[in-house]
Amino acid sequence: MSYSADSPGTGASPERTGRIRPARVLTVGVFALAGLLFFTSFNTAKGTNIRTDASLLKLSDLVQERSHKNKGLDESNAALRGDVESLAAAGDDGRTRTQDEKLTGLEKTAGTAPLSGEAVTVTLNDAPPNATAKLPGYPEPQPDYLVIHQQDLQAVVNALWKGGARGIKVMDQRLISTSAVRCVGNTLILQGRVYSPPYKITAIGDTGTLQKALADSPAIQNYMVYVNVYGLGWKVTDDGTVTLPGYSGTVDLHYAKPVE
Q1: Each residue of 240-249: pLDDT tens digit?
Q2: Dihedral class, residue 114 (left if φ above 0, else alpha if ψ from -120 to 50, else beta)
Q3: How much helix, strand and coil, in percent to the nearest 5, is found in the chain?
Q4: Sequential DSSP letters for 205-255
């Protein structure tokens, strides 16, 4: 007759009964780990709700806070620059007039002075989240197909420069030679400030030439496929005469420095 190892009355040897079964070791280990996790969570939370406690600053809140702060600094910098220009004009004489005219020309070229003229505005927007393929032969959209990407904004800006734009504004900021159009996720980060779609890009120049440059751009032609198939937003308007603001931020270049 054979007996199972757990059956009573089997007459198991002392060596057998003195061992701890692997299943019991595993059970003890699981409970010990659970206790450690519970203690760690309690010690971290200190009685607060980790998920919903308002005192815990979210990264998105920090980004928005810094964006608003940068906007305020830009406005303050622009006001101070206006004060400096007013003081310089009040003390002007014939000896500095030539230098002032030269400086004014440099400011227009650099984009730090307001610029007026005929303009076009391009508006780009995300597609509806429930969008489907509108034309046969195309796959159903991935989430990546339905949002504006950095290369889309760059394609519009590059086409407008190529079309002879004398000045460009993205959202409410003037672009200069050191401006970088960058996206993180589906948000635009421009000169320290954060924007969400729809994105508006306004350019001053010959409106016919600007619109032709947009139509001739291979990158924009590719974007238009997604406009027609998945419903990405695209709108070009002739704005008549507008005035672009001068760039009011710092013009200093920043370089990476080695850490010693």
Answers
A1: 999 999 998 7
A2: beta
A3: 45, 15, 40
A4: S-HHHHHHHHHH-HHHHHHHHHHHHH--EEEEEEEEEEEEPPP-S------
Q: Are 164 and 203 in contact (CB under 8 A)?
A: no
pLDDT of residue 13: 36
* pLDDT-based confidence at residue 45 (cuts at 50, 70, 90): very low
Contact 141, 132 (CB under 8 A): yes
- How far apart CA 260 and CA 252 sit, in angstroms, is 24
Question: Coil, strand or helix: which one is 257?
Answer: coil
Paired with 238 in beta bridges are 120
Rounded to whole angstroms, the Cα distance separating 206 from 209 reads: 5
| Beta-sheet strands, E only, within the chain | 115-125, 167-170, 173-174, 182-184, 187-190, 193-195, 199-204, 233-244
Confidence grade of residue 175 (pLDDT, cut at 50, 70, 90): very high
- Is residue 170 over pLDDT 70? yes
8 Å CB contact between 244 and 169: yes
The two tokens of residue 38 are 């519970």
Distance between CA atoms of 168 and 122, rounded to whole angstroms? 11
**Euclidean distance between CA atoms 27 and 203, whole angstroms:** 69
